[in-house]
Specification:
By secondary structure, the protein is of the alpha+beta class. The protein is built from two helices and three strands. The longest helix has 12 residues. The chain is elongated, with a radius of gyration of 15 Å.
Length: 71
């Protein structure tokens, strides 16, 4: 079992994160300043190389990066 975390590169505008930040502030969570939205995938693969290949296939490498860990 593997877990891939896919996140936006620093400096890429995260419109969904801005919307969540605004919503949380309107609900009284004023200490929330910045939210970044990403994806977490958990899946079975036969090797780390296959797990990396799967994560890479789900990543827009222009805007995102990924990290894979074995569970």
């Amino acid at each position: 079992m593997y877990r891939a975390k896919i996140m936006l590169h620093p400096g890429i505008l995260d419109n969904a994160g801005l919307a969540v930040s605004s919503a949380l502030n309107s609900l009284g969570w004023n200490e929330v300043k910045d939210v970044r939205i990403g994806k977490t995938l958990e899946y079975n693969a036969s090797s780390l190389e296959e797990a990396e290949s799967i994560a890479k296939s789900q990543t827009n490498e222009v805007m995102e990066f990924y990290e894979v860990e074995k569970l």
